[in-house]
Design goal:
Glutaredoxin, 2 domains, alpha/beta, about 10% strand, about 45% helix, 6-stranded mixed sheet
């Protein structure tokens, strides 16, 4: 065999060995599995990052709520640890009550305006769910009542009713929070609603405000 022929044979053999090595490498390295788990890893990182972002408090909302609370001069605050369900009447130590034991059935509070006084025990249950209860003296001027109605109508987790025996024309109550006002034009009405409708004081966040007692 000539030298050139031998060189050609050797070159062909080298190419064949290289091809065999490449084929062996393709068989032994699980590229499909690596790609699959790589994609899974990327998805997991994205999911974890999203969860972390969602878990962060809404700074803008929190700042707005804090600002509203800061403007509530005259705010009465009280710790209300008792919130048992009872079947009878409850003797409350504030008028109107702003927490405590209450009836198992809440008063519907999805922006409800009631024209008659409510039973305390049902309204307090609404406060437990995060509602704000606006009460007023039965002899409050009609235009004042209308202003209050405009705040409640269409505002979920609010209810409104006359309340005999109040020591102020208007009283706003949330769980453990209360504010007494002289007129419905007071800017603290909006501030109270912003701070406490489904606010951080709510003992049972996410509880319903419909499907229960619908009459005074």
């Amino acid at each position: 065999m000539s030298k050139n022929a031998r060189n050609r044979v050797q070159a062909q053999s080298a190419r064949e060995r290289l091809q065999q090595q490449n084929a062996l490498t393709q068989r032994t390295i699980p590229w499909g599995g690596i790609a699959f788990f790589g994609v899974i890893g990327v998805i997991a990182i994205i999911a974890i990052g999203y969860a972390v972002v969602q878990a962060q408090p809404d700074k803008k909302s929190s700042a707005s709520s804090d600002s509203a609370k800061a403007s509530l001069t005259g705010l009465i605050q009280k710790n209300e640890p008792n919130r048992n369900h009872v079947s009878g009447s409850v003797k409350y130590d504030s008028t109107p009550p702003m927490g405590g034991d209450h009836d198992p059935m809440w008063q519907n509070c999805d922006g409800r305006v009631y024209d008659k006084a409510l039973r305390n025990e049902n309204a307090v249950h609404s406060l437990e769910h995060g509602a704000v209860w606006i009460t007023y003296k039965p002899d409050l001027a009609g235009q004042e009542v209308d202003k209050l109605k405009s705040k409640v109508n269409g505002t979920d987790y609010t209810l409104m009713s006359p309340y005999p025996g109040l020591d102020a024309p208007i009283v706003l109550s949330a769980w453990g929070k209360q504010l007494k006002l002289q007129n419905a034009s007071d800017g603290r009405v909006d501030a109270f609603l912003k701070a406490f409708v489904k606010g951080p004081q709510t003992p049972e966040p996410g509880a319903a405000c419909t499907g229960a007692k619908d009459t005074p």
